[in-house]
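ugh finaly. both done.
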Amino acid sequence: MNTRVNRLFEKAEAHDLDSIVLANATEPMLDMTFFYVTRLGAGGLFEGSFAICNPPDKVEVITSILEEESAKHGDFPVHAFKVREERKEMLADSLKDAKRIGVNARELTYAHLLYLKEIRPDAEFIDISKAVAAARLVKDGEEIEATRVACRIASEAIVEVRDFIKPGVKETEVAAELCYIMQKKGAAGPSFDTIVAFQENAAEPHYRAGERKLADGEFVLIDFGALYNRYVSDITRTMFMGKASEKQKKIYQTVLDAQQKALDVIKAGIKGADAHNAAAGHIDSTEFKGMMTHGLGHSIGLNVHDGSGLSPAVDVTLEEGMIFTVEPGIYIPGYGGVRIEDDIAVTKDGYDMLTTAPKDLVEL
């Protein structure tokens, strides 16, 4: 029994579907829900592949002979095509009895939608992307453990990379070294473009590592993650090159306290906005009012931004098994910034801390 397929159909129950089709285009336009239902972790790119789900819990995969061996690692029927015309015939056969077909419109290219309509012009294609997001939001044990490994790799790597960070080093060099360390520890690669931001660059939450060289007394903000079996981690640590100033120490402690305020309220049953307000409220009670310019966190899983968030803009009630980042920050344009980010799995009475890197103030 494929419990994940079953979960998709349960969340999409109101649509009364005959089948669900998950389609991959070319990288990076791959629907990660394809990997969610197939559990194909380590191998295979699966461009141009389809997963056909049938109620209550069946899945079959149509893929090229290039990916046939990788697909055989899954527990489902595999149909391998040599030429595209064979793929069309396989899809037509798999969907021949389906009248109402669910598609994940958020991850489906327009070209693929037209392709499916050409194959089944008499079928109704229904957007079930909200149901897909809801199904993937609560992780099963296998997903939590994969994320835990990704978090362990990242947590160990950020400690190890400290010895590499010295005056004169470039942001890009630190980013490259960190990725190298993570892959030595078992990561398939980084889970997103690594952010390394020195001094004033640390005031940009989504800055990308550049050519800036590090000097004494500067902020060193590193936001990164490890990719393991397609699951991601996302962690941020902020350090200081040499001795931190009193202002830098005050900013750091304020962010650290704000994160703890949020963690203190997180548990199953609360609104995600409540956790955000706990952190932002603390920051706004200090001289740094208004300097946390983003939501407290976001869900992670097969994607770095996996469909939900801890923010007043997102209406989500926390459930056991949801995994979120908790990442308050203070950003002062032209000066610098601090962000402290960890990944947690929501539990009945609180949370399971998945990232383990120390959060004490580090002066390099």
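ok and the 2nd:
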Amino acid sequence: MNLCARLLPPRLWLIALVCGPGTPLPRAAETINAPELFITHCAPCHGPDGRARTPAARKLGVKDLTESKLADPEIRRQITEGKNDKGGKQLMPSFREKLHGDEITALIAEVKKFRK
């Protein structure tokens, strides 16, 4: 039995086998730490308070999350696909390869907590 099969439950091992390396594995909803995901993936640009007061935010024109009025599907799209300006310059990277769907759902709720 290979190492992967010994360390992962059968369902996750099958997903890893079918999807290949680099594909994020699903996590049980109760193990997702949305604040930690935000700090790791979003805070470098949006800041720990969501107000976009970081050097990267100033350089890229990152939006203040406390003023966001985006609907959940648009937030999901931006997290999944990233965001480019009208000229095609990347403003926000895609997190499709880094985050699983349940993690993105948790991040949507976390991002909305910053709203006024």
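summary for the 2nd one i guess: The domain at 32-112 is CATH 1.10.760.10 (Cytochrome Bc1 Complex; Chain D, domain 2).
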